[in-house]
Write a structure and sequence with these properties.
- The structure holds 2 protein chains of 2 kinds.
- Chain A is of the alpha/beta class.
- Chain A has 22 helices and 29 strands.
- In chain A, helix 5 packs parallel to helix 12 and helix 13 packs across helix 15.
- The radius of gyration of chain A is 26 Å and the shape is globular.
- Chain B has a domain of 121 residues: Alpha-Beta Plaits, CATH 3.30.70.
- A 3-stranded mixed sheet of chain B has the order 8-1-9, with helices on one face.
- The chains are: A alpha/beta, B alpha+beta.
- At the A-B interface, strand 5, helix 1, helix 6 and helix 20 of A face helix 1, strand 2 and strand 3 of B.
- Bound molecules: iron/sulfur cluster (3 copies).
- Chain A: Belongs to the prokaryotic molybdopterin-containing oxidoreductase family.
- Chain A: Pfam families: Molybdop_Fe4S4 (PF04879), Molybdopterin (PF00384), Molydop_binding (PF01568).
Chain lengths: 730, 185
């Protein structure tokens, strides 16, 4: 692989910063006998309570973080933090944190941990890694990574010789959307998504419960749109918070969203409500789409979706007449069924037909700024001896890799055995479907290492646990933010690491040393590397340290104008409504509707989602956030509850089609959900006894997801295919 | 004397709860207690539903029964017109907690009465209350009603606002606009 040569020795040593707060006190000049007053210090950094990565300003008094606030300069926070952002203090001071390295002395997964020194723990890991390398090859070590930024662990793995890493963000979250948008527009819609919600006249949420999914700046823009009387259309089997703001709530039969999307496209084309000029100028394949959607009439869609055809027509007209200022939210967690990419393609096609890509109120264009890549070292990675298997056989699997492929390869030892797992910043038990597969795969390993901050379920399975310090105690790599304008955000420690926890970069570097890979870590501290990176990019490091965020306003060019013409990086250079690339690989070039199974009588489809005060399964033990939401509830339609004689707040148990039983969970009897679904907020019922607040509180949706579909295009999984029934035996 | 009020634009609240936890951290509120809450109210039957998300907190009432009920004058009207509690004078008799019709007060683990202060320490510095500052929906708006140019004055001129439990006669200084359920307060 080619790497830009970089002189690491030329690092400017003293581009001084503000760095960690010491305590500054003022002994009042006149205050005879008065106690000295501690002056608060305000230090900017980047939030990690979810992956929106807002700018934060920490207020530190006497070496303690007392308040976190949004950095007004940062476009993801705009001076505000969400509940979790404010609750970051709870993570920092959670007494349940991992405090020292641990080595499991029992059988795998038994969690009979003994405390170890860093030297002992890292030596143990390095030794095992070398043995696996000798026996099976370096490729037999895989990395499952997410959460805390994984730059250095991916770097370590590649330096060691393995290309096998996978992040839940692809197969389990945004992957299908990324692929669909790349196929259509030549580019993903971004993360955070480039959505111009504050200027939208119509906001369509299909598969997104914005608000409950508290993505800071997007929530701010959504409220802005609501405040300006934008028409909100919400498609959701559940009356979400956003549905409470909607003019049209379409309580769709789950698994039929593609039918609705195709039928909207049908109406918009039939009634000539698309942007003809835009379509002619920027797109290709319109006729094929028009032909393909002919059969998807509103009358047809009514039967599939349970939504009256008149309502389908009405909403299509509202959408069409307000073009191009229409935002069809592409969603985030797109891992639903076996046709995720096709469903997301329909979203992309509809967006294009409305001329909403590159237009106010739609999806804005990427900022125009390129920075040359700066690598963690100038040394080439060794060429792996065996082919990477992290993308499986999925022709459009992304660079982030596909998690279930790693699990499967570990289980079957095909095409070659995987014998070591590194898990960093992801709770594998709660992120991936079919926990039984994950557990059996783990039994085949010779080494399982977990790097994390808290003893999450997945961490409890590890042979060696390496305690990372929290985002408030460490440096990480710089974040490039592609909002309307381009910008750089820094994460830096605001207090010293507590206990014997260490920053991720330190852990990777120390392991690297023990593996004979020190050349790949040519910097002393990570701050040295950051300074060098800033120097390369022409950014004043001390300014970044002080402000937390540096913006490049000249890079902003959000809309298509006569002198800002979009370049679509597709093979045809146009927006591909009809995808030749899909066709060539044997897939439908224009989305076709696939029917998915519906629950039999007496069963409910399990749907799951977010609460605004929690992220994944990673905050349920946080003292501050736990207090706001201690456990989840199972939402059940009021009529169903009545029929079954269930009262609000009763405890029930959910049993899935494979006989898997959930932990007991309170029932929320509500009108806000269809009769054929049960809804759980994701991430509860931790099985880790070391999480004293979260342990066995509520029900684990992921435990009930024993079945899953796979999208053959991307490898994205479908996790909305499980049926459950209710048992009163608690 | 300014007339500090809070206007709650009910329609803009997205129920993110940032306000609730920002308040807790700003004011170091004891575990298990909250000075403000967001209440969810749903009416109707599937699929014809309406929902209101309503922030509730101390109303800093003009006719404050909590002040009248307090035997030690710990509960008092501060110079800036807000209703405050002087912790040193509070004997923990809980009279004010019972007198408040809004369930806005609680007794701290130390046994003194406590409630929302409108972040008086922040107002003094010219800042907004913590909940307002962080409100993702800009659903909480704070300002001086005596200043005709303030955002709150403008909003209350434009909208027909409601207060909670008007019949209680306490003259609240927390106003609700764009409410869905007129009687729902
Ligand atoms: S959205 Fe909330 S949790 Fe996520 S980064 Fe922003 S403040 Fe932090
Ligand atoms: S809301 Fe209750 S505590 Fe607040 S001023 Fe009114 S009566 Fe007193
Ligand atoms: S912060 Fe604002 S939008 Fe969020 S719950 Fe509170 S009042 Fe509602």
């Amino acid at each position: 692989m080619s790497i830009t040569r970089r002189n690491f020795l030329k690092i400017a040593a003293a581009t001084g910063g503000l760095a960690i707060a010491g305590t500054s006190t003022v002994t009042s000049v006149l205050g005879l006998g008065k106690k000295p007053v501690s002056l608060p210090q305000y230090i900017p950094t980047t939030c990690e309570m979810c992956f929106w990565r807002c700018g934060v300003i920490a207020k530190v008094v006497d070496g303690k973080v007392v308040k976190l606030d949004g950095n007004p300069l940062h476009p993801n926070s705009r001076g505000k933090l969400c509940a979790r952002g404010h609750g970051g203090i709870g993570l920092l001071y959670d007494p349940d944190r991992l405090k020292t390295p641990l080595i499991n002395t029992g059988a795998r997964g038994e969690a009979k941990f003994k405390k170890a020194s860093w030297d002992e723990a890292l030596g143990f890991v390095a030794d095992k890694m070398q043995k696996i390398k000798e026996k099976y090859g370096a490729e037999s070590i895989a990395l499952l990574t997410h959460g805390t930024i994984s730059t250095y662990f991916m770097h370590l793995l590649q330096a060691f010789g393995s290309p096998n890493f996978a992040m839940p963000s692809f197969a389990l979250c945004r992957g299908a959307r990324g692929v669909a948008f790349e196929l259509t527009f030549g580019e993903d819609v971004g993360n955070p998504e480039r959505l111009d919600i504050q200027n939208s006249k119509v906001v369509v949420l299909i598969g997104s419960h914005l608000g409950e999914n508290a993505h800071n700046s997007q929530c701010q823009e959504f409220a802005e749109a609501v405040g300006k009387d934008a028409t909100v259309i919400v498609v959701d089997p559940r009356f979400s918070t956003a549905a409470g703001k909607a003019k049209y709530w379409l309580p769709i039969k789950p698994a039929t969203d593609l039918a609705l999307l195709l039928s909207w496209i049908n109406v918009i084309i039939n009634e000539g409500l698309y942007d003809k000029e835009y379509v002619a100028k920027y797109t290709s394949g319109f006729n094929e789409v028009a032909m393909a959607v002919k059969e998807y009439t509103p009358e047809w869609a009514e039967k599939e979706t349970d939504i009256p055809s008149s309502l389908i027509v009405d909403t299509a007209r509202v959408i069409g007449k307000n073009r191009p200022h229409v935002l069809i939210h592409p969603g985030r967690h797109t891992a639903w069924y076996s046709d995720n990419v096709q469903r997301q393609r329909a979203v992309a096609i509809l967006t294009a037909l409305l001329g909403a890509y590159g237009r106010p109120g739609g999806i804005y264009l990427s900022p125009k700024k390129k920075l040359e890549p700066v690598f963690l070292s100038d040394k080439d990675y060794p060429e792996p001896q065996k082919p990477a298997l992290n993308k499986g056989d999925y022709p459009f699997a992304g660079e982030e890799g596909v998690t279930h492929v790693i699990v499967k390869a570990t289980l079957t030892e095909q095409p070659y055995p995987i014998k070591g797992w590194f898990i960093t910043g992801t709770n594998i038990m709660k992120a991936m479907p079919n926990q039984r597969d994950t557990l059996s795969a783990i039994q085949k390993l010779e080494l399982l290492v977990a790097v994390d901050m808290m003893p999450y379920d997945g961490v409890m399975l590890a042979d060696v646990v390496l305690p990372e310090c929290t985002y408030l105690e460490r440096h990480d790599d710089l974040f490039t933010v592609k909002e309307r304008a381009f910008g750089i955000s820094i994460r830096q420690p605001v207090v010293q690491p507590m206990y014997d926890s260490k920053p991720g970069w330190w852990i990777a570097k120390e392991l690297g040393k023990r593996l004979g890979l020190e050349d790949y870590f040519p910097w002393n501290t990570f701050e040295d590397f950051l300074k060098m990176k800033c120097e390369t990019w022409g950014i004043d490091y001390s300014e970044l340290v002080k402000k937390g965020y540096i913006s490049f306003p000249e890079s902003e060019a959000p809309y298509i104008t006569s002198d800002n013409q979009p370049k679509f990086k597709t093979p045809s250079g146009k927006i591909e409504l009809y995808s030749k690339e899909l066709k060539e690989k044997g897939f439908d070039p224009v989305p076709k509707y696939t029917k998915h199974k519906q629950p039999p009588e007496g069963w409910f489809r399990l749907i799951y989602g977010r609460a605004p005060v929690h992220t994944f399964s990673r905050t349920t033990n946080n003292p501050s956030l736990w207090e706001l939401m201690k456990e989840n509830t199972a939402w059940v339609n009021a009529k169903v509850a009545k029929k079954m004689g269930l009262k609000n707040e009763d405890y029930i148990v959910l049993i899935n089609q494979d006989g898997v039983k959930s932990n007991k969970v309170r029932i929320k009897v509500t009108e806000r959900i269809r009769e054929d679904c049960i809804y759980l907020v994701h991430g509860f019922s931790s099985t880790s006894k070391l999480l004293h607040r979260a342990y066995l509180r509520g029900a684990d949706d992921q435990q009930l997801i024993t079945k899953y579909d796979i999208d053959p295009i991307s490898g994205s999984v479908g996790m909305r295919v499980n049926f459950v029934k209710i048992s009163k035996e608690v | 004397m300014p007339k500090y009020v809070m206007v709650i634009d009910v329609e803009r609240c997205i129920g993110c709860m940032a306000c609730v936890i920002a308040c807790k951290k700003e004011n170091n509120v004891a575990d298990g207690y909250f000075r403000t809450r967001v209440v969810e109210e749903v009416r109707g039957e599937f699929p014809y539903l309406k929902m209101e998300l309503r922030s509730e907190l101390c109303n800093h009432c003009e006719n404050a029964p909590c002040i009248d009920a307090c035997p030690t004058r710990a509960s008092h009207r501060a110079k800036d017109g807000t209703v405050q509690i002087d912790k040193k004078k509070c004997i923990g008799c809980k009279a004010c907690i019972l007198a408040c019709p809004y369930d806005a007060r609680y007794s701290t683990p130390e046994g003194v009465a406590d409630k929302c202060t409108f972040c008086e320490h922040r107002i003094k510095e010219g800042k907004k209350p913590a909940c307002v500052e962080t409100c993702l929906g800009k659903s909480r708006i704070f300002g001086d009603l005596d200043d005709p140019n303030s955002e709150v004055s403008q909003l209350l001129k434009k909208h027909d606002a409601a207060v909670r439990l008007e019949f209680a006669g306490t003259k609240p200084r927390v106003f609700y606009i764009n409410k869905k359920f007129a009687g729902g307060l």
